[in-house]
Amino acid sequence: MEWVKRIEQVLYFRLFDIGGAAITPIQLIILALVLVITSIIARSVRRLCEQRLMQFIDAGPRYTMVRLAQYSIWCIGVLIGLRVLNVDLTTVAVVAGALGVGIGFGLQNVVANFVAGLVVLFEQPIRVNDFVTTENVEGRIEEIKFRSTKILTNDNISIIVPNSEFTNRTVINWSHGDPRVRLHVPVGVAYGSDVDLVTRTLLEVAAETEGVLKDPEPQVWFKEFGDSSLNFELLVWIDQPEYHQRLRSRLNYAIEAAFRRYGIQIPFPQRDLHIRSAEGLIPLMSHSSVE
Questions:
Q1: With the C-alpha atoms ordered 32, 38, 40, 46, is the resulting torsion angle positive or negative?
Q2: 253: which of 80, 84, 270, 275 lies 20 to 30 Å off by Cα?
Q3: Domains and CATH numbers, the chain
């Protein structure tokens, strides 16, 4: 039939060449189908892994395994797509290498973040659901992608952090290992205060504050003689590090109330000025009186 021949002519029409291989509409259609099937398989594998591994593996390692499985499936799908186009993979590798040198200078940050993402996924210094603190961001990790990581702060704000931040800078992972952490709450009292009363008061506040662990026991350290105050430090243990700021505020409120109750004064910075001679001040005082 003539219309069948026309369709064949359209489907097998030579559009352009890649590495000496002719690209036709039928190949592009098959490529699109391969990519769609790859996407479906990747999503299915993700759901299957999450359901099967949920009971045996924690959220962090499970997320890493699912991500690596998806990336592997997509790599296989892309290779199959290239074979559908009859593209010589050797030629692609040579071209990619040549382009990589030029593009690398303009995409250094992207490449660095990509490599950092692989390091994070394999070494797992941070994992999904971990509570972390970087230089300017604190929150819970929701997602780790190729280039960046999404962190949800306590203010319910999603912040996108480049993966290189987790490999090139210091990161506090509050969820790593033992969830118990110790808080240091600095407190200053006026000179002349009863240090034993201050110690007992701080320990009483720690014992009555919700969220403070009984074991290990809270401690009070007499840190130093400051310029305007006797400086103490209350040390308490908590097992919910993501709420450390809230608990610190709760302790500060309780300490201030307890100090008022027991008559313990919280000082403010002050300086004593000693005048040895008033001769130089007499002209100034006379001038002020005249005005």
A1: negative
A2: 270
A3: 10-106 (1.10.287), 123-173 (2.30.30.60), 181-262 (3.30.70.100)
Shortest CA distance to 149 belongs to which of 119, 179, 176, 177? 119
Tell me the per-residue pLDDT of 44-76, one tens digit each, with 9 for 90 and over: 887 777 676 666 666 656 666 777 788 788 888
- Within 10 angstroms of residue 131's Cβ, the number of other Cβ atoms is 23
Strands 131-133 and 138-144: antiparallel
**Measured distance between the N- and C-terminal CA atoms of the chain, rounded to whole angstroms:** 115
At 176-218, the pLDDT tens digits run 878 888 999 999 999 999 999 999 999 999 999 999 999 999 9
pTM above 0.85, yes or no: no
CA dist 86 and 92 (Å) reads 11
